Amino acid sequence: MNREYLENKETIHFKFEQNKEDFIVDEIPLSFKGNGNFAILHVKKVELTTWDMIAAFAEFLNIPAEKIGYGGLKDKHATTTQYISVEAKYEKQLKKFRHPQIKILTVTRHTHSIRMGDLAGNRFSINLFGVTQIEAGRIEKLARKSEKNGLPNYFGYQRFGRDEDSIEQARAMIAGDLHVNDAKLKKFLVSIYQSLYFNDWLKERVLLSREKNGGKFMLLEGDVYLSDEEKLFTPKSTPQKDFQAKKVVPTGLLPGRNVYRARGEAREIEAKYDDEFLYDKGLRRAALVYPQDITCKYKNHFDILNIAFTLPKGSYATVFLENIANKNFKAKRL
Length: 334
Fold this sequence. Notes:
The active site is at residue 75. By secondary structure, the chain is of the alpha+beta class. It is built from 8 helices and 14 strands.
Protein backbone atom coordinates (compact mmCIF):
# COMPACT_ATOMS: atom_id res chain seq x y z
CA MET A 1 0.00 0.00 0.00
CA ASN A 2 1.56 3.27 -1.08
CA ARG A 3 0.45 6.88 -1.05
CA GLU A 4 0.70 9.10 -4.13
CA TYR A 5 0.89 12.89 -4.11
CA LEU A 6 -0.33 15.63 -6.40
CA GLU A 7 3.06 16.47 -7.90
CA ASN A 8 5.12 13.67 -9.41
CA LYS A 9 8.40 15.48 -8.87
CA GLU A 10 11.97 14.46 -8.12
CA THR A 11 12.45 12.83 -4.72
CA ILE A 12 14.12 14.93 -2.02
CA HIS A 13 16.21 12.80 0.29
CA PHE A 14 16.21 13.77 3.94
CA LYS A 15 15.92 11.95 7.24
CA PHE A 16 13.92 12.63 10.36
CA GLU A 17 13.80 10.90 13.70
CA GLN A 18 10.75 10.54 15.91
CA ASN A 19 12.39 11.25 19.25
CA LYS A 20 12.04 13.71 22.10
CA GLU A 21 14.50 16.28 20.68
CA ASP A 22 13.63 16.28 16.99
CA PHE A 23 9.86 15.67 16.87
CA ILE A 24 7.75 18.11 18.90
CA VAL A 25 3.94 18.14 18.89
CA ASP A 26 1.75 20.71 20.65
CA GLU A 27 -1.99 20.24 20.77
CA ILE A 28 -4.07 23.31 19.89
CA PRO A 29 -7.14 23.21 22.14
CA LEU A 30 -10.65 24.48 21.79
CA SER A 31 -11.46 27.26 24.23
CA PHE A 32 -12.10 26.51 27.90
CA LYS A 33 -14.59 28.41 30.09
CA GLY A 34 -12.22 28.96 33.02
CA ASN A 35 -14.85 27.66 35.44
CA GLY A 36 -16.84 24.48 35.95
CA ASN A 37 -16.67 21.05 37.56
CA PHE A 38 -13.75 19.71 35.54
CA ALA A 39 -10.03 20.44 35.86
CA ILE A 40 -8.28 20.81 32.50
CA LEU A 41 -4.62 19.84 32.67
CA HIS A 42 -2.15 21.06 30.07
CA VAL A 43 0.34 18.19 30.16
CA LYS A 44 3.78 17.67 28.66
CA LYS A 45 4.88 14.09 28.09
CA VAL A 46 8.16 12.67 26.79
CA GLU A 47 8.58 9.26 25.09
CA LEU A 48 5.17 8.03 26.30
CA THR A 49 1.95 7.12 24.51
CA THR A 50 -1.19 9.00 25.49
CA TRP A 51 -2.52 5.72 26.93
CA ASP A 52 0.58 5.33 29.14
CA MET A 53 0.24 8.90 30.34
CA ILE A 54 -3.46 8.45 31.17
CA ALA A 55 -2.67 5.18 32.98
CA ALA A 56 -0.14 7.02 35.14
CA PHE A 57 -2.73 9.62 36.18
CA ALA A 58 -5.40 6.94 36.73
CA GLU A 59 -3.08 4.98 39.02
CA PHE A 60 -2.07 8.09 40.97
CA LEU A 61 -5.69 9.21 41.48
CA ASN A 62 -6.93 5.62 41.96
CA ILE A 63 -9.67 6.04 39.35
CA PRO A 64 -10.57 4.13 36.15
CA ALA A 65 -8.76 5.43 33.05
CA GLU A 66 -12.20 6.02 31.46
CA LYS A 67 -12.72 8.86 33.95
CA ILE A 68 -9.93 10.85 32.27
CA GLY A 69 -10.91 12.80 29.17
CA TYR A 70 -8.63 13.56 26.21
CA GLY A 71 -9.02 15.04 22.74
CA GLY A 72 -6.60 12.93 20.71
CA LEU A 73 -3.73 10.46 20.75
CA LYS A 74 -0.18 11.81 20.53
CA ASP A 75 3.01 10.16 19.28
CA LYS A 76 5.08 8.10 21.70
CA HIS A 77 8.50 8.83 20.24
CA ALA A 78 8.33 12.60 20.64
CA THR A 79 7.91 15.42 23.09
CA THR A 80 4.23 16.33 23.07
CA THR A 81 1.81 18.54 24.93
CA GLN A 82 -1.92 17.93 25.16
CA TYR A 83 -4.95 18.59 27.32
CA ILE A 84 -6.71 16.07 29.55
CA SER A 85 -9.58 16.46 32.00
CA VAL A 86 -10.53 15.03 35.40
CA GLU A 87 -13.19 15.94 37.93
CA ALA A 88 -12.25 19.15 39.72
CA LYS A 89 -12.32 17.43 43.11
CA TYR A 90 -8.91 15.88 42.24
CA GLU A 91 -7.25 19.23 41.58
CA LYS A 92 -5.69 19.53 45.03
CA GLN A 93 -4.41 15.95 44.95
CA LEU A 94 -2.79 16.55 41.56
CA LYS A 95 -0.46 19.14 43.08
CA LYS A 96 1.50 16.18 44.47
CA PHE A 97 1.71 14.37 41.13
CA ARG A 98 5.29 13.57 40.08
CA HIS A 99 6.44 11.51 37.09
CA PRO A 100 9.82 11.49 35.30
CA GLN A 101 8.19 11.70 31.84
CA ILE A 102 5.11 13.79 32.60
CA LYS A 103 4.76 17.40 33.73
CA ILE A 104 1.58 19.34 34.43
CA LEU A 105 2.13 22.77 32.84
CA THR A 106 -1.09 24.58 33.76
CA VAL A 107 -4.52 23.84 35.20
CA THR A 108 -7.79 25.55 34.30
CA ARG A 109 -11.49 24.71 34.62
CA HIS A 110 -14.23 23.77 32.18
CA THR A 111 -17.91 22.85 32.28
CA HIS A 112 -17.49 19.32 30.89
CA SER A 113 -14.92 16.62 30.33
CA ILE A 114 -12.75 16.69 27.20
CA ARG A 115 -14.06 14.27 24.57
CA MET A 116 -12.29 12.60 21.66
CA GLY A 117 -11.96 15.17 18.89
CA ASP A 118 -12.17 18.18 21.21
CA LEU A 119 -9.17 19.96 19.72
CA ALA A 120 -8.56 22.43 16.92
CA GLY A 121 -5.37 20.89 15.55
CA ASN A 122 -1.70 20.26 16.26
CA ARG A 123 1.47 22.31 15.88
CA PHE A 124 4.55 20.35 14.78
CA SER A 125 8.24 21.20 14.94
CA ILE A 126 10.44 18.63 13.19
CA ASN A 127 14.16 18.54 12.42
CA LEU A 128 15.08 17.25 8.96
CA PHE A 129 18.64 15.94 8.58
CA GLY A 130 20.97 15.75 5.58
CA VAL A 131 19.47 18.82 3.90
CA THR A 132 21.64 21.00 1.65
CA GLN A 133 20.99 24.72 1.37
CA ILE A 134 19.48 24.26 -2.11
CA GLU A 135 17.24 21.45 -0.83
CA ALA A 136 16.17 23.62 2.10
CA GLY A 137 14.87 26.18 -0.40
CA ARG A 138 13.05 23.50 -2.38
CA ILE A 139 11.48 22.06 0.78
CA GLU A 140 10.19 25.46 1.88
CA LYS A 141 8.78 26.16 -1.60
CA LEU A 142 6.96 22.82 -1.69
CA ALA A 143 5.64 23.28 1.85
CA ARG A 144 4.16 26.65 0.92
CA LYS A 145 2.66 25.17 -2.23
CA SER A 146 0.75 22.65 -0.09
CA GLU A 147 -0.38 25.55 2.09
CA LYS A 148 -1.94 27.09 -1.03
CA ASN A 149 -3.18 24.05 -2.99
CA GLY A 150 -3.84 21.56 -0.19
CA LEU A 151 -2.29 18.34 1.04
CA PRO A 152 -3.88 14.91 0.39
CA ASN A 153 -5.26 13.93 3.77
CA TYR A 154 -4.07 10.31 3.85
CA PHE A 155 -3.97 8.24 7.00
CA GLY A 156 -0.23 7.91 7.73
CA TYR A 157 1.79 4.73 8.07
CA GLN A 158 1.33 4.81 11.85
CA ARG A 159 -2.34 3.94 11.36
CA PHE A 160 -1.57 0.50 9.96
CA GLY A 161 1.05 -0.98 12.29
CA ARG A 162 4.78 -1.51 11.93
CA ASP A 163 4.51 -4.17 9.20
CA GLU A 164 0.99 -3.17 8.18
CA ASP A 165 -0.03 -6.39 9.93
CA SER A 166 -3.16 -4.70 11.26
CA ILE A 167 -4.52 -4.60 7.69
CA GLU A 168 -4.54 -8.38 7.34
CA GLN A 169 -6.14 -8.79 10.78
CA ALA A 170 -8.83 -6.26 9.86
CA ARG A 171 -9.59 -7.96 6.55
CA ALA A 172 -9.74 -11.38 8.18
CA MET A 173 -12.11 -10.11 10.89
CA ILE A 174 -14.46 -8.41 8.41
CA ALA A 175 -14.46 -11.55 6.23
CA GLY A 176 -15.40 -13.67 9.26
CA ASP A 177 -12.14 -15.60 9.27
CA LEU A 178 -10.92 -14.05 12.53
CA HIS A 179 -13.06 -13.84 15.67
CA VAL A 180 -12.28 -10.91 17.97
CA ASN A 181 -13.84 -10.72 21.43
CA ASP A 182 -12.16 -7.55 22.71
CA ALA A 183 -14.49 -4.62 21.89
CA LYS A 184 -11.69 -2.04 21.72
CA LEU A 185 -9.59 -4.20 19.38
CA LYS A 186 -12.61 -4.87 17.20
CA LYS A 187 -13.34 -1.14 16.92
CA PHE A 188 -9.68 -0.46 16.13
CA LEU A 189 -9.58 -3.09 13.36
CA VAL A 190 -12.78 -1.73 11.81
CA SER A 191 -11.20 1.74 11.73
CA ILE A 192 -8.12 0.24 10.00
CA TYR A 193 -10.40 -1.36 7.39
CA GLN A 194 -12.21 1.94 6.77
CA SER A 195 -8.93 3.90 6.63
CA LEU A 196 -7.50 1.54 4.02
CA TYR A 197 -10.49 2.06 1.74
CA PHE A 198 -10.20 5.84 2.19
CA ASN A 199 -6.49 5.86 1.34
CA ASP A 200 -7.02 3.71 -1.77
CA TRP A 201 -9.84 6.01 -2.92
CA LEU A 202 -7.73 9.11 -2.32
CA LYS A 203 -4.81 7.61 -4.23
CA GLU A 204 -7.02 7.10 -7.31
CA ARG A 205 -8.34 10.66 -7.08
CA VAL A 206 -4.80 12.04 -6.73
CA LEU A 207 -3.59 10.09 -9.77
CA LEU A 208 -6.61 11.34 -11.74
CA SER A 209 -5.79 14.92 -10.69
CA ARG A 210 -2.18 14.52 -11.79
CA GLU A 211 -3.24 13.13 -15.15
CA LYS A 212 -6.08 15.50 -16.00
CA ASN A 213 -5.77 18.62 -13.84
CA GLY A 214 -2.10 19.56 -13.73
CA GLY A 215 -1.52 18.33 -10.19
CA LYS A 216 -4.35 20.31 -8.60
CA PHE A 217 -7.07 18.27 -6.93
CA MET A 218 -9.83 17.65 -9.47
CA LEU A 219 -13.44 18.02 -8.38
CA LEU A 220 -16.05 15.65 -9.82
CA GLU A 221 -19.80 15.93 -10.30
CA GLY A 222 -21.51 14.34 -7.29
CA ASP A 223 -18.70 14.90 -4.78
CA VAL A 224 -19.72 15.35 -1.14
CA TYR A 225 -18.25 18.50 0.36
CA LEU A 226 -17.52 19.69 3.87
CA SER A 227 -18.28 23.38 4.39
CA ASP A 228 -16.29 25.72 6.62
CA GLU A 229 -19.25 25.38 9.00
CA GLU A 230 -18.55 21.60 9.27
CA LYS A 231 -21.66 20.62 7.27
CA LEU A 232 -21.73 17.91 4.57
CA PHE A 233 -23.57 18.62 1.31
CA THR A 234 -23.69 17.67 -2.38
CA PRO A 235 -24.19 20.77 -4.57
CA LYS A 236 -25.99 20.79 -7.93
CA SER A 237 -22.85 22.03 -9.66
CA THR A 238 -19.12 21.83 -8.88
CA PRO A 239 -18.29 24.64 -6.39
CA GLN A 240 -14.92 25.50 -7.95
CA LYS A 241 -14.79 29.11 -6.66
CA ASP A 242 -15.67 28.15 -3.09
CA PHE A 243 -13.11 25.34 -3.27
CA GLN A 244 -10.39 27.72 -4.43
CA ALA A 245 -11.39 30.12 -1.64
CA LYS A 246 -11.06 27.21 0.85
CA LYS A 247 -14.68 27.57 1.90
CA VAL A 248 -15.45 23.94 0.99
CA VAL A 249 -13.38 20.78 0.67
CA PRO A 250 -14.28 17.47 -1.06
CA THR A 251 -14.55 14.43 1.19
CA GLY A 252 -13.88 10.71 0.92
CA LEU A 253 -15.81 7.80 2.36
CA LEU A 254 -14.99 5.68 5.38
CA PRO A 255 -17.56 2.98 4.58
CA GLY A 256 -20.31 1.86 6.93
CA ARG A 257 -23.94 2.53 7.76
CA ASN A 258 -25.77 5.86 8.00
CA VAL A 259 -23.25 7.84 5.96
CA TYR A 260 -23.73 10.32 3.14
CA ARG A 261 -22.45 8.78 -0.13
CA ALA A 262 -21.32 10.51 -3.32
CA ARG A 263 -23.39 10.55 -6.50
CA GLY A 264 -22.86 10.47 -10.25
CA GLU A 265 -19.30 10.64 -11.56
CA ALA A 266 -17.78 10.82 -8.08
CA ARG A 267 -19.73 7.76 -6.96
CA GLU A 268 -18.34 5.67 -9.84
CA ILE A 269 -14.89 5.90 -8.25
CA GLU A 270 -16.10 5.86 -4.64
CA ALA A 271 -18.12 2.66 -5.17
CA LYS A 272 -14.89 0.73 -5.78
CA TYR A 273 -13.78 1.57 -2.24
CA ASP A 274 -17.06 1.00 -0.42
CA ASP A 275 -18.44 -1.81 1.72
CA GLU A 276 -22.17 -1.27 2.00
CA PHE A 277 -22.54 -4.38 4.18
CA LEU A 278 -20.29 -3.07 6.95
CA TYR A 279 -22.51 -2.66 10.02
CA ASP A 280 -20.31 -0.14 11.84
CA LYS A 281 -21.05 3.56 11.42
CA GLY A 282 -19.56 5.19 8.35
CA LEU A 283 -17.93 8.62 8.21
CA ARG A 284 -16.60 11.10 5.70
CA ARG A 285 -13.11 12.62 5.86
CA ALA A 286 -11.71 15.71 4.14
CA ALA A 287 -9.75 14.72 1.03
CA LEU A 288 -7.43 17.70 1.47
CA VAL A 289 -6.11 19.72 4.38
CA TYR A 290 -4.22 23.00 4.33
CA PRO A 291 -1.06 23.30 6.43
CA GLN A 292 -0.75 26.70 8.09
CA ASP A 293 1.83 28.97 9.74
CA ILE A 294 4.80 27.28 8.07
CA THR A 295 8.25 28.36 9.24
CA CYS A 296 11.65 27.02 8.15
CA LYS A 297 14.96 27.58 9.93
CA TYR A 298 18.12 26.22 8.31
CA LYS A 299 21.21 25.36 10.37
CA ASN A 300 23.81 25.80 7.66
CA HIS A 301 26.78 24.15 9.38
CA PHE A 302 24.80 21.05 10.36
CA ASP A 303 22.65 20.44 7.24
CA ILE A 304 19.57 20.51 9.48
CA LEU A 305 16.30 22.17 8.52
CA ASN A 306 13.73 22.75 11.24
CA ILE A 307 10.26 22.92 9.76
CA ALA A 308 7.26 23.94 11.86
CA PHE A 309 3.63 23.86 10.71
CA THR A 310 0.07 23.49 11.94
CA LEU A 311 -2.36 20.80 10.76
CA PRO A 312 -6.06 20.24 11.52
CA LYS A 313 -6.94 17.44 13.94
CA GLY A 314 -6.69 13.92 12.56
CA SER A 315 -4.04 14.81 9.96
CA TYR A 316 -0.53 13.35 9.91
CA ALA A 317 2.77 15.27 10.00
CA THR A 318 4.47 12.33 8.28
CA VAL A 319 2.05 12.69 5.33
CA PHE A 320 3.07 16.37 5.09
CA LEU A 321 6.73 15.24 4.96
CA GLU A 322 5.98 12.51 2.41
CA ASN A 323 4.30 15.09 0.19
CA ILE A 324 7.48 17.19 0.23
CA ALA A 325 9.87 14.27 -0.23
CA ASN A 326 7.70 12.53 -2.85
CA LYS A 327 8.35 9.19 -1.18
CA ASN A 328 6.63 6.98 1.38
CA PHE A 329 8.09 6.55 4.85
CA LYS A 330 7.69 3.47 7.02
CA ALA A 331 7.70 2.81 10.75
CA LYS A 332 11.19 1.96 11.97
CA ARG A 333 11.90 -1.18 13.91
CA LEU A 334 12.96 -0.45 17.47
